[in-house]
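Q: What would this complex look like in 3D?
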Amino acid sequence: MFSSAAPKFIRSCGVQAWKHHHRCFPNVSVLASPKCSVHHESSGRESCNNSQARKAVHVAAAVGTACLLGASLYWKAQYDRHEAAEFSQEGGKFRTGLPTYTLAEVAQHKTKETRIWVTYKNGVYDITDYVTSHPGGTKILLAAGGPMEPYWNLYGVHKHPGIIKIAEKYRIGNITERPPAESVSVNDPYGSEPARNPVLIPSSKKPFNAEPPALLLVDSFLTPNELFYVRNHLPVPQVNLKTYTLDVEGPKKVLKFTYDDLIKLPKKSVAAVVQCAGNRRSDMVDIKPVKGLNWGAAAIGNAEWSGVRLSDLLKQCGVNLDTTTKKHLVFEGMDKGPEGSVYGASIPIELAKSLKDEIILAYEMNGKQIPRDHGYPVRVIIPGVVGARQVKWLNKIYLSDEESECHWQRRDYKGFNSSIDWHNVDFDSSVAIMQLPVVSAICDPPAGTELEEGSEDVTVRGYAWSGGGRGIIRVDVSADGGKTWHTAELQPNGQTPYRAWAWTLWEATVPLPEGHVGPVELVCKAVDVSYNVQPDGVEGVWNLRGVLNNAWHRVTVTVPPPS
Amino acid sequence: MFSSAAPKFIRSCGVQAWKHHHRCFPNVSVLASPKCSVHHESSGRESCNNSQARKAVHVAAAVGTACLLGASLYWKAQYDRHEAAEFSQEGGKFRTGLPTYTLAEVAQHKTKETRIWVTYKNGVYDITDYVTSHPGGTKILLAAGGPMEPYWNLYGVHKHPGIIKIAEKYRIGNITERPPAESVSVNDPYGSEPARNPVLIPSSKKPFNAEPPALLLVDSFLTPNELFYVRNHLPVPQVNLKTYTLDVEGPKKVLKFTYDDLIKLPKKSVAAVVQCAGNRRSDMVDIKPVKGLNWGAAAIGNAEWSGVRLSDLLKQCGVNLDTTTKKHLVFEGMDKGPEGSVYGASIPIELAKSLKDEIILAYEMNGKQIPRDHGYPVRVIIPGVVGARQVKWLNKIYLSDEESECHWQRRDYKGFNSSIDWHNVDFDSSVAIMQLPVVSAICDPPAGTELEEGSEDVTVRGYAWSGGGRGIIRVDVSADGGKTWHTAELQPNGQTPYRAWAWTLWEATVPLPEGHVGPVELVCKAVDVSYNVQPDGVEGVWNLRGVLNNAWHRVTVTVPPPS
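A: Here is my prediction, written as C-alpha cells for the whole assembly.
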C-alpha cells in the first residue's frame, strides 16, 4: 500500500552502494575516487564517466550490513525552537583529545568492513553500530564516507538537539580541513552558476549535470525542485527579469511578452515528467562504450509545472496551429555556447497540433518560481517529450519549414541500431527523439543492498512512465531474474490514460524462495496503455550515444548467510 | 528499391514451407493433415491448432530446392481473348492413359524430395523441374500439393493458353474425385457464410477465421479485399440493405441512419491497418500453450476504408465528444451468438476524443463495397486500435459510463504477464487492449526457404506498424540472429508520423558471410516515432491468451551446400 506522498520510511534495509553516489559524490567521492576522470565529450563538456570505480564500490558495499527492523527509534517528540537553534551552533564542534582525519581518510570508510564514517561540521562519527537503529532506514548510508549536512538539510526532522546527542556518542574524531573553495575566474563562463543541493550527484561540472540518488525519487510523486536532475548543455544564463522578453513570431508580427505579461495571462498547471534521453545510459556502457554523461536511473523527475498555454500566445500572434502550413515549431534558449550560438530545439508541427493546449511556458515548478537550473524565468514544457526539446531560459518561439539547426537537434539525441558506430553514423538518416518510449526503474532497494538475514520477501519500489501521454497500466517485478513475475501495485497519478504526462510510482513485495541465501536479481518492466513493453536486454537497444535505454531494469541485491 | 505497389516478382527463391499454408490449407492440407484437430475454445469456436504438423512440414520443406535466378521466362505477350476463353475450357481435362491419383496422394508431394505436384481441374502435374523457371518465383510453391486455381485466379497473367501448354508438359495424371461439397444444414447458423478466396488459410471454419500466406502481404501497400485476414467471432449476419439502419444514440434522441442516409453524407477515406490482437500467436505456442486461433504473421492487413465520419453522426445526435461526461463510446454489431447476444466493443472516451474526426463508419474497403466478411454494410474503423474494437456489421453506437459488457471486451483481449495462467487470472485486473504496440514481421522469404546455392546476400521484405498513429521510423534486419543489424529501406506510406494509421512496407538486402552454408536466422525489429521498440523475446511477452506478440520476428532459411 502506498501510504502518502510524504517520505515513507522503508522496511527494506541494509548497507548499500549507489552507482551514482559513489561515482562522483560531491565533496566526498570526487576526492576519494582517483578514477573519476575528466574527459572531453562530443559536445565539449566535462564529465565523470567512471564505471570501473562504480563497479568496485558496488561490489565492496554489497558486503556491508545494517538492519532497522524492530530497532527503530523514531524522533517524534515536539522540539523546542531554542534547542534547535542551539543544536545548529553546538553540534559537530571541534573536540579536543580526539584524533584528526582528512576528508580523504573519511571517504575510505563506507562499508561495514571498513567501518562507516560520516562527518558533521568538524566532527567525525563512526555510525557502523547505529545504522541498524536509524529510523530512516537505508537512506543514512547515502552519507557514508561524507558529510551528513546535505541529508539533514533535506530531512528537517534531524534538526533536533537529541539527534546530535546521539551522534556525539559515535564521535571518533575531528576534521580540521574544509573542502577547498572552488576558485572562480572572472572569465569563466561558468562563474555565475546557481547553488546546488549537494545531494545531487554530478556527472559533469561544467556544464553542470547531476542526478539525485534514485532511492530518493520514490519518496514523493512530485520530485522536489532541489532534487530534480539537472541537464545543462551550456553555462546557466543570468537573466534580468526586468528586461526579459519572450519573443513569439507570428506570420505578420512578433510579440515580445515580458515576464509581467506572462504571469497576467491565464495560468495552467500540469504534472509532467521531464526525462533525459540518456537516462540509464550507464547500463549501456557495460555492452560497449558510448559517448555521453554516465547517467544512472535518476535522470528523470516529475514536477508540477505552471505557466501560460503556448496556444494562447500563438493566437495573439495570429498563428493557428491547425491550419498553418509550416512544419516545425522552434524554440530558442538564452544559454550560449562559446561561439555565441544558443541552445535550441524544435518539434514537428503534427506533434504540436496534437498537444497544442498542453504545451505550456512554465514559470513555476512545484508552486515555486522555476529555479535557475531548470530554466528561470521560463521554460517550455512539452509533455510526453524528451527533456532536450523542452528548452530552458526560453527566449524565442517561431514556426519554420526547417527543424531547429541546433547541434542537439540534428547531430545528437537520435537513435540508431547497435551496428551503427562513429565510423559509419549518418545523423541525417535518423529522426530526432521526441516522444519517449515506455520505461521503468527500480529505485529501492538500490543495487548492492544486503537484505535482512533470513528475508522471506523483498519490497521493491520504482517509477514507470511512457512518452506521448500513454499511461502505465502494469508493472511486473521479478525476484528471480525474470523467470517469474509479480504485478506491482500502481500509485494512481490522477491523469487519464491517454493524457498521462506524469509518472506512475509502484511497489511490489515479492517472495523469495524459502531459505534463500545469496544474490537476488530484481527486475522490473512496465506496460503502457498502448501495450508497448520494454525490451528485454540492453544489447538490443545499445546505440553509440547511449540514449533511449528502456530495457528491463535489473538490480542485484543479496541475502546474507545466517550469522 | 521499391518498384511499385503492384506485385513484384522477387529475386529470392527456393522451396519453402509456410507455417499457415501447411497448417490448414483449404481443400488440400486439411485432408492431408490428420493432426488438424477440431477443439473447443474458450469462446466456443472451432479451430485448427496444429503446431506439430506445422513444424514437421516446416522442417521437411526446408530441404527442398528451387531457383529462379537467371532462368526467368516471363509471360509478357498480349493474349487473345478467344484463346483465353478456350484455355479455361480445355486446360486440365481428363487425359486417358494416365494414372489417377486421390487429392490426399497429391497432397503428399510438396517438396523436391517427394516431387512437387499440383492440380488444375482434373489434371495432376509434377512441376518439380519447372519451379526454377517460374517467373513468379517462390509463389508457385504456395500451391504445392494442392490446386493451382486459387493462385491463377489471383494472378490473371496465368489465364493464357500458353500457360496450360507449358503445364501439360508436366502432366503426370488425373484426379477423378472432387473435394466433397460441404453439406449445409438449414439449422446451421453458419449456413449462409460468404464465399471466400481459397488462398486464405483458415485457422477455424465455424466461425470462419483465416489469413493469407504472409508472402502475399508485401506485394502491395493495400491488401486486396479477398486476401485480407478474416476474424469472425460468430456467424456472418445476413443484412438486408433496404431495412438496415445504424442507430446512434444521443443524450436526447436516437437517430436511425439508413444506408442511403450514410452514403449521402460527406465521405472520408483513410488507409489504415486492422490487426488481430492474436497476430503471430503461433510463435507463443512454442513457449507454453495458449488459448486462441493459431495465427501466423498475417492476421493483419492494410486497406483504404471509406465512409462517414463518426463525429458527423454524433453532432446530428447532439453529442459533443469534447464535453461529454460519459466515459465510453460503445459499438454493437449484428452478429449474434446462440443465446442471442451480439458482438460489441467500446473505447474509452479519451481515446475517442483524440481520434474523433478519424473514426469512420466505413461502407467501402479499397474502393469496393465492404465485403460481408469485413462488415457489410458498415463497420467502424478506429485507426491505430486493435481489430476487436472495430465492430463489423455495425448496428448501434451509444455513450455509456460503463465499457461494453461483451465477453470480448471484458473477458478476452487483455494482456497479462507470463506468470498469470488460467488458474490465477483475474480479467478485471487488466485493461482491454486498445492501441497496439509496435510490431513487424518478415514476410519474404518465408521460413524454411532454401536460398540459392552460393548466395552472397538475402533480400528480406516485410511490414511494420505501430498503434496510436505512431509512424515507423526504422526497421532493423539481421541475417545472423540479431548480432549485426542492417537498416531497411522503408516504403513511404504518405501519412504523417503522428497520424500514421497505415503500415510501412520495408526491404533490406543483407549480406551473408562469404561462403556461408547452412541455416541463416533472419530477424527484424521496428522502431516507431515514439522510439518504442519491439521486445527481444517471445518469453517476455507470453500470456495465456497469446495476444500482443510483438517480439522480434525470426525466420530461419538455409543456404544449401555446393552441389
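A: To summarize the key features: Chain B has 13 helices and 28 strands. Chain B touches chain A through 50 residues (CB under 8 Å).
Q: Very helpful, thank you.
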